Amino acid sequence: MFMGPLSGAGAQRGGRRYAFTRAAWGWLLALVVVLLIFRAGTLEPDSGEWSVFGYGAQWSANNIGAILRGETEFRGSYLAVAGGSRTLYGYGRSLRLELEANAAAHTGLQHHSELNTALLVRWNRFPWDRLVNTSVAFGLGPSYAFRTPEVERHPRRPASRLLVFMPVEITFALPHDHNPRRELLLRIHHRSGAFGGVSDARGSNFVSAGFRYRFSGEAGLE
After folding, report:
1. Could you tell me if residue 16 is inside a domain?
2. What pLDDT does residue 160 have?
3. DSSP string of 2-67?
4. How far apart are CA 121 and CA 221, in angstroms?
5. Higher pLDDT, 161 or 4
6. Which of 21, 123, 161, 198 has its CA 20 to 30 A from that of 13?
7. How many domains, in total, are found in the chain?
8. Which residues constitute the domain of residue 158?
9. Angular region, 8: left φ>0, alpha ψ -120 to 50, beta rest
10. 41: left (phi over 0), alpha (psi -120 to 50) or beta
């Protein structure tokens, strides 16, 4: 999702929309490939690891690409989130597939509740893990706002309560082992129309920080 308006009326009707649709199909294809890789790995339905997490966030008027480059323009809209997740698949010690659900409360420029769920692909093996245990994750799933979000309104683009939830996350932990219980969580809480594949809505990005606790230190998938 890119938060700037599409350039020109012709772009809305023609090539720009087509480019967004191709990008959405690209993400879906990548997700299918990853799921096939996990399917070839080891399913652990009984020993899947559970975790709980919470984070606070502030709305950034920048698009997700700019935020990932370190560019943020914070505005007066805030978000508090609590949720849980479970590990579904593991492929060696590097890749995991997780299912997440969370509930969010908005304050500041908008006041409403929000429910989100997503499948997340997590990579948790880096060369510097002996110094700082690190993981990165990307997710995809539905997001429902119980009121139309004020920060997602745009004069030339429709707002929608139902959008795609696309969290982008990095975690840090002490280097005790490959599956720490406590993690510092940094995340972009992203709602969008999936590059026009689901909706032309503007969407939103909230930059967040929080904490995750994993219940089983023994559930690392070897």
Report:
1. yes
2. 87
3. --SPPSSHHHHHSHHHHHHHHHHHHHHHHHHHHHHHHHTSEE-SSSPPEEEEEEEEEEESS-HHHH
4. 14
5. 161
6. 161
7. 1
8. 9-214
9. left
10. beta
